[in-house]
Structure formats: C-alpha cells, structure tokens
C-alpha cells in the first residue's frame, strides 16, 4: 500500500484481506465475510461515526499516524484473535431501536443470547407484586438493565459470582443512569440473595467440558467462569430451576435461555413442570415457567 495515497476504504479492504488470510473467526460480529468487522474497526480507530457508506469518510486520505493506529487495531483482531467487542469495549444488544450500547471487557461474556427477542413479551405478562426483578448470572448486566429501561417502575438486582463482572455491570448501570433502580449483588447463584421477585431471568453457564475443548481462539478469550457448567453443561441451570421457586412471588415467572443442546434434556428431566418453550432458528432454546 502506498501510505501517501491511502484512504479509509483502502484500510478496510486491507483489513478484510488480512483477516481472511489469517482465518479469523467473525465470532458473532458482522458476518463471516468480515467486511463489517473491518469497517467497524477502521472507523473505531479513526473516531468516526459508524456510517460505513458515507463517501466523505471512505474517500478521506489518511495520515501516517492514522494508518499506524488502524494497523494496531487490526493486529489485536488478527494476531491476538481478540473478539471485536473486547477491542472496542463496546457492544450493542437488545430489543430497543437502535439496540442499547453497553461497555464490555474481557471480564464478561459477550452478550448474544436471543432471549432479548422475548423481553417485551415477558414484561407484558408478569403479574407484578413488588416490582422486583432478578438477573441471575448477569455478567455485564445487559438483561437486567434492558428490563429496567423497558419498565421505569421496576427495581432490578444483578447477581454474579465474579466481582470483576459486577464492576462491568456497575459501569453499565452508571452509564444508563439507573443507580436508583438497579444494584449489584455478589453471590454464588442464590447464596446471598434475600428477596423474592416477580421475575427471574437467566442465561447461565451452559458449556460442557467436551464443547469447551472445541472452542475457536476467539471464544477462549471469554471468561471460562461464565461459560463452563460442569461436565455436561447442566450444573447451573439445574440448580436455578430447583431453587428459583423459593425466590419467586406467587405467580412469579422464571425465564431462561439454555441453548438448543440442553433444551431436550431439560424438557425430559423436568417433564412435571409446565415450561413454555420458545424457538430460535427452529430449535427450542428458551423457556418460561410461571409459578
């Protein structure tokens, strides 16, 4: 590349080419062609709005220091195999339009559960008694915070075993000015939980030991604590299903996303419970249980 004549579009093309050559995994961001990843990282490095089709931006000539900045960003994605949200410390997620922006770092799992597709429906069907919601295994706090944004009358408690994860959740609470309605609790599942709730939501660790051994390099940057759940992936969700009823108000609800692999196992093991199952990509991976 002729540095003197390089433009923004050139760096995007260069980034796509080098990521493909290095067999970078898109890892839930922008698609397997890596084009949006290259656009996003280039615009992030240049502190530009994420308006990838703007010809003024695309045709702008770059200074040598800007090219160096972009190259360093791509090195993190290509050489270190860091997922994009860990490089930019930002992630958009949820049912609102546009999706809600959250702070993310390597201390938390990158939010991607499809359960957000059902959040508005869940909120409409809750029988509110004390307007209290629990987000179990919250990580960055995204689900509980979105619920608080959807309903200004509720209070939310974000529970996680990891203090570092709760620091990230607190940053997101502060960024969305929800300090009066959302708080963090450090707890190994329900150990330090004291209240009863109208709604408990969870996306628990659910990766088996065998699955974890097959992870791509990008996936290994996520904290194992937020992913692994015993030998078969069932340890956390079984405990939550068994214990959650004690922490629900009369007519309270439990919602969980456990992925398609565990769906049939949970359905068989808890056949006596009346779960309402929801499909994502034609597979049952989310359920709702009403007390």
Word description of this protein:
The protein has 291 residues and is an alpha/beta fold. The protein is built from eleven helices and nine strands. The protein has helices spanning 8-21, 35-45, 55-58, 64-78, 84-88, 119-125, 142-150, 163-175, 209-212, 235-243, 259-269; strands spanning 91-93, 100-102, 132-136, 155-160, 182-186, 197-202, 248-257, 276-280, 283-290. The radius of gyration is 21 Å and the shape is elongated. The mean pLDDT is 96.
Which strand order spans the largest sheet, edge to edge or round the barrel?
5-4-3-6-7-9-8
Total beta strands: 9
Decide which structural class fits the backbone: alpha/beta
Q: How can the largest sheet be summarized?
A: 7 strands, mixed
Alpha plus pi helix count: 11
Gyration radius (Cα, Å) is 21 Å
Specify the overall morphology: elongated
SSE pattern, N- to C-terminal: HHHHHEEHEHEHEEHHEHEE
What is the rounded distance between the termini? 63 Å
What is the strand content? 15-25%
The poorly predicted ranges are none
Keywords:
291 residues; alpha/beta; seven-stranded mixed beta sheet; two-stranded antiparallel ribbon; elongated
């Amino acid at each position: 590349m002729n540095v003197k004549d390089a433009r923004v579009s050139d760096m995007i093309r260069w980034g796509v080419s080098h990521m493909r050559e290095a067999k970078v995994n898109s890892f839930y961001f922008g698609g397997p062609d890596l084009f949006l990843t290259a656009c996003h990282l280039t615009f992030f490095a240049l502190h530009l709005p994420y308006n990838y089709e703007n010809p003024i931006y695309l045709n702008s000539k770059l200074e040598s220091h800007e090219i160096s900045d972009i190259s360093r960003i791509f090195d993190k994605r290509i050489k270190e195999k860091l997922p994009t949200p860990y490089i930019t410390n930002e992630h958009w997620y949820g049912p609102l339009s546009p999706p809600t922006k959250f702070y993310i770092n390597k201390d938390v799992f990158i939010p991607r559960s499809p359960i957000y597709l059902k959040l508005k429906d869940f909120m409409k069907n809750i029988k509110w008694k004390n307007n209290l919601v629990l987000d179990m295994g919250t990580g960055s706090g995204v689900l509980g915070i979105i619920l608080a944004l959807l309903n200004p009358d509720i209070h939310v408690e974000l529970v996680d075993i990891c203090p570092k994860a709760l620091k990230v959740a607190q940053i997101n609470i502060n960024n969305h000015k929800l300090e009066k309605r959302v708080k963090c609790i450090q707890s190994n599942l329900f150990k330090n939980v004291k209240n009863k709730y109208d709604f408990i939501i969870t996306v628990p660790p659910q990766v088996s030991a065998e699955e974890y051994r097959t992870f791509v390099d990008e996936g290994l940057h996520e904290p194992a604590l937020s992913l692994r759940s015993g030998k078969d992936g069932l340890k956390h969700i079984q405990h939550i299903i068994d214990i959650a009823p004690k922490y629900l108000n009369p007519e309270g609800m439990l919602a969980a996303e456990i992925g398609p692999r565990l769906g049939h196992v949970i359905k068989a093991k808890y056949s006596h419970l009346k779960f309402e199952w929801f499909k994502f990509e034609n597979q049952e991976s989310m359920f709702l249980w009403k007390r």
